[in-house]
């Protein structure tokens, strides 16, 4: 079985920056395990501007930002196409890669697995299971990575920053959303976003509006919503269910470390309840910018380096 000083699970901005900084601090036996075929994390499929190294000059698109990060980490031991499946009782990790199942152990393990949007099932939305219903991440991957147009007139559910980013992706793919809906009375993004959505994209945001069901036979035909006690049917051919991020907790949900609302419980030095396991980046439960996750990665590198000296 392979053994390393440090194994980082997740090759997004947090994990890659941690590996880069550990290397700069003289810690060389570091492996990054990334399940996708290419490292870079979520920015790989965010085709809009707003990304900057260390949060400075945020004029890069997500893919350009991810490419820059990958260039910086050239030469480091980054293993893509490698998914960590679970922690074993003996404290090792079980991995799946092109060469099959294997085990790996490490003196220190860092979870940098990010977050994902809550599923339709978790939000208890009724109706049929139909193609054309997806979260922001899948929508972005289809548009920016696979160059597909999954629908023409979707309804966007949610009012977080990420919900509004769908307007940019829609524009890129020549898709015209019917409207945005949110259960809240206030937006979960700056209130001027609503004005921007209307003026710049011709899309109105319906507040205090709950999605009841998604209707259709072989494809989405409409959604039923409820607002102020009134039920209404809105014609559309797709639904983007956005936001309500949860930590990517599949790996540790079996109780290997303590967690709260799916995020690992950590100290202010990123240590989880298991002393040799740390967590950094969005897996901690807050959706921060990629630049902020880089800064956390850098901070954790300094902490680990000083512990190892
Ligand atoms: C739609 C959207 C728009 C955004 N726009 C901006 C923006 O304009 N500017 C900005 O700065 N930030 C933006 N962000 C936020 C930014 O993308 C995140 O803050 C950043 O990507 C988080 O970095 P991370 O390394 O913590 O996690 P991620 O980027 O999520 O990376 C985690 C990595 O871990 C891998 N992984 C997960 N589980 C496993 C496993 N079991 N085994 C192996 N690998 C695994 C994943 O494949 C992934 O590559 C946006 C986010 C979203 C969702």
Keywords:
22 strands; 309 residues; seven-stranded mixed beta sheet; five-stranded parallel beta sheet; alpha/beta; FAD/NAD(P)-binding domain
Structure write-up:
This protein has about 300 residues and is an alpha/beta fold. It folds into two domains: about 1-115 and about 245-309, FAD/NAD(P)-binding domain (3-Layer(bba) Sandwich), CATH 3.50.50; about 120-245, FAD/NAD(P)-binding domain (3-Layer(bba) Sandwich). It is built from six helices and 22 strands. Strands 1, 2, 5, 6, 7, 8 and 22 form a seven-stranded mixed sheet that branches. The protein has a five-stranded parallel sheet with strand order 11-18-12-13-14. Helix 1 packs parallel to helix 2. The longest helix has 19 residues, at about 290-309. It starts with a strand and ends with a helix. The structure holds flavin-adenine dinucleotide. Flavin-adenine dinucleotide (FAD) binds near residues 9, 10, 14 and 84.
């Amino acid at each position: 079985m392979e053994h390393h000083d440090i194994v980082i699970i997740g090759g997004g901005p947090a994990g890659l920056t941690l590996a880069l900084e550990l290397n700069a601090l003289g810690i060389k036996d570091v492996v990054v395990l990334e399940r996708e075929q290419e490292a870079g994390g979520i920015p790989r499929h965010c085709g809009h501007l707003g990304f900057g190294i260390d949060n400075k000059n945020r004029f890069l698109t997500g893919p350009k930002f991810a490419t820059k990060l990958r260039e910086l980490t050239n030469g480091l031991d980054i293993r893509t196409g490698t998914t960590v499946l679970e922690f074993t009782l003996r404290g090792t990790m079980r991995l799946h890669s092109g060469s099959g199942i294997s085990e790996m152990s490490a003196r220190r393990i860092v979870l940098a697995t990010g977050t994902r949007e809550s599923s339709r099932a978790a939000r208890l939305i009724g109706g049929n299971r139909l193609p054309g219903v997806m979260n922001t991440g899948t929508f972005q991957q289809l548009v920016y990575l696979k160059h597909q147009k999954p629908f023409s007139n979707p309804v966007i559910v949610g009012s977080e920053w990420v919900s509004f980013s769908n307007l940019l992706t829609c524009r890129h793919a020549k898709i015209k959303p019917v409207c945005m809906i949110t259960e809240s009375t206030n937006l979960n993004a700056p209130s001027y976003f609503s004005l921007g959505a209307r003026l710049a994209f011709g899309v109105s945001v319906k507040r205090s509006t709950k999605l009841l069901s998604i209707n259709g036979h072989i494809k989405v035909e409409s959604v039923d919503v409820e607002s102020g006690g009134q039920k209404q049917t809105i014609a559309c051919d797709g639904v983007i269910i956005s936001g309500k991020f949860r930590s990517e907790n599949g790996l540790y949900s079996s109780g290997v470390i303590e967690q709260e609302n799916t995020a690992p419980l950590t100290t202010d030095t990123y240590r989880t309840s298991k002393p040799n396991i740390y967590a950094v980046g969005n897996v901690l439960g807050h959706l921060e910018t990629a630049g902020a996750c880089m800064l956390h990665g850098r901070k954790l590198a300094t902490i680990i380096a000083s512990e190892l000296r």
